[in-house]
Amino acid sequence: MNPAPRQDPADAPSAPGEGRSTDTDDRDDLNALEEAEPLLADASEPIPMESANVHFVPVPEPQHGSTLELFKDPYFWVLALWMLLVVGSAEMVVSNLGTIVLSLPSAGGSNASANVATQVRLLSFFNTLSRLLMGPLADVLAPVASYLDGVWAFSRKRHASRVLFVVGAALVLAATFAWLELGVRTQEAIWPLSVGTGIAYGTTFTVLPGVLSSIWGLPNLGRNFGIISYTAFVGTTVFSYIYAFVAARHVAPGENACAGVQCWRATFWVGTATSLLACGAALFLWRRWRHRV
């Protein structure tokens, strides 16, 4: 009779439920390992971060000063001079556009009143259009600085300084006045004066608040804008008196109104020179402020 073969204990069939118990123990060990890992990374370990596409360019903080401190700032007076020359000459055109048109003959014998109305509409249209377009354009090309992470900085890349819009307004006005002197001899040809004046005037009052708030602070914007607006009042008065004086000197004997380019030629030569002076003042401010606004 042959003896039964010996069976290795490892090959012996497991009792019912024994394999299930082993699987449960393995899962418990795995859970214990996972719980042993810290939920938060150690501060000493470098944390991988994705590079953010944000460019912070620190700038000096705006000057939140009193009215007296504002008056002591020489750059405020340079900006006030620019305002006086640009807005003063532009408002002189706005106030006297009708008499400027009527001083010239009509090329085709068209109605003079209709020609005046056309020029007024052109000036108003481009004044409004420049206000609607220059604001968003300045925000895209030259955003103002904001308070970010404890510092004043530009939150995104700038492509230009907002002061360049100030320079551009003076240049447009100078070119407009020079063109009036050299190329306008009829009522119908005077449209560049209306268009250029409207663009320069609208650009000025659109861009100026951003410049004031960036340099002297947003809380004082209303006060500072009100103060600098007085220079526009002075400029308008000065240029309007120049226009009236020149026109009165060229009224023909027995006539009630001046006729011909001599009625305003000297006035607009002065306007061309003062607009170029304003452009120089704006370039001076650009060199000083181009990294701030």
UniProtKB/TrEMBL annotation:
Membrane topology: Multi-pass membrane protein
Claim: Transmembrane helix is one of the keywords in the record: yes
Subcellular location: Membrane
Coiled coil feature spans: none
Chief location category: membrane
GO cellular component terms attached to this protein's record: fungal-type vacuole membrane
Keyword presence, Cell division: no
Region (Disordered), start-end ranges: 1-34
Compositionally biased tracts (Acidic residues): 25-34
Transmembrane segments: 75-94, 163-180, 200-218, 225-246, 266-286
UniProt keyword annotations, A-Z: Membrane, Transmembrane, Transmembrane helix
Protein name according to UniProt: Uncharacterized protein
Organism name: Trametes pubescens (White-rot fungus)
Upper classification of the organism: Eukaryota, Fungi, Dikarya, Basidiomycota, Agaricomycotina
